[in-house]
User: What shape does this take?
Amino acid sequence: MSVPIKIAVAKGDGIGPEIMDAVLTVFNSVGVPLQYEFIEMGKTYFLEGYGTGMTPKAMKVVEELGILFKGPMETPKGKGMKSINVTARKTWSTYANRRHFQSLPGVDTVFSRAGIPIDITIVRENIEGTYGGVEHMNTHDVTICRRIISRPGSEQVIRFAFEMARKEGFTKVTCAHKANIMKITDGLFLEVFQDIAKEYPDIQSNDIIIDDLAMKLVARPHEFQVVVLTNLQGDIMSDLCAGLVGGLGFAPSANIGDHIAIFEAVHGTAPDIAGKQMANPTSLLLSGLMMMRHLGFVKQAAQIENALRYTLEQGVHTADFGDRSIPFSTTHEFAQSVITNLDKEPEFSKPRIAKDGVPLFIKPLAATHQKMMESTKDKANKVIKGVDLFIESSEPGEAIAATIQPLLSSGQKLVTISNRGTLIWPTGSVFTELVDHSCVRIEQEQGEMTQNEVFELLKKVGKQYMIPSYELLRNFGIKTGYSLTQGQ
Ligand code: NAI
Assistant: This one.
């Protein structure tokens, strides 16, 4: 018998306690070497004034144990209330969100009827992208959101996808992106993917443009195994995949960081059925199996998954799915059926066999200081070639150019003016519609610009226009660090 591992457990709100009790009963029946420390986390603690939705003691327990198994939690409605779930994921740097979508017996879908099995794992970057929530209202009419894609952030999540694939018996990893349009941000994500893929020659790798992925997931889902994506794109594709296998109720989820990992069901607290023993515990049970595999309890996870599949094959179901001619089981009865079938193997649908080996789990560090993410030690020569000034103006390009050009110092050149990324000066079309936010691109004709010269320019232009934001145009060695305007 393995040495027991202690994990933090939060039962959650709404249906959380019912489904968590059902799942832990199943775990206990196979003697999984886990010890549970129940923590104070959820809506009650939020309402008691703990902004993170957990007590300091609960936070300490999670940080010491490194694994949190949680039921769904309600975010009280109202302004300024941040989701407890999102806060936990970000606070503990769980950079990889892993969701598994598989065909399950008894769950009727278009693909199950066509006899096409689905087994797709989405690995979504969980911290950055547009989810940094860095947004500004630049003018009355124009709002912007910064989409942050970092090299270390991309490396973490992409490496996790390959490590997971290798350990759990997948043979192919696909990177989905929009690098044809977002050449710098998604271009970086793709470049990192291609570099890391070289370290895993035993695993096939390819990339696909995100819109093509959306179509192919619907048309030929069985061609995909592991797909790694940036945050928002991953969020959307996850729900698409949930639709392929019968909805969110069957999708387990893990939020993985280097030191802390959170395992939870994808669905919410289902307040409409809470306390009625009607909830389906499958999603939380599958999340628990992901956790067991993460901790290295591969055999026990396979035994429970076989029992679950056999149970579903027998037509056992809760009220939310399955054959209506068969009476539905309560949450507790459903768990008991899985327990009764622990010595059974499914006839028609075997789970994928994960390789035995070193668990992915890495022990939590004693957190004595804030962790710096590894810098890539870039030695490239960085130069400022110019600046993009975003000005508030409703004038056409010619009028803006006539105001700006006399303000430039010798050697500085007005290169382009664009509006929502489309060129409006020196060439353009009267059919291009304008908003009150234009980008004036000024470059140094020879050599480079200093930061002070940029500030001088800002001062001069600032006397004529409001400049709600600006971006330096920098080159990093041979890499141009800014995009061209559409039409340039
Ligand atoms: P929900 O997922 O709780 O419910 C949507 C519908 O699905 C309801 O009809 C519900 O009865 C049904 N449903 C959900 N899980 C089920 C299960 N296991 N078995 C049977 N039926 C199930 O989504 P909703 O109503 O939008 O959110 C309710 C609360 O949950 C909100 O406070 C929300 O913030 C929270 N939430 C928490 C999440 C988490 O803890 N990770 C994720 C999503 C929502």
Notes: The first helix runs from residue 16 to 29.
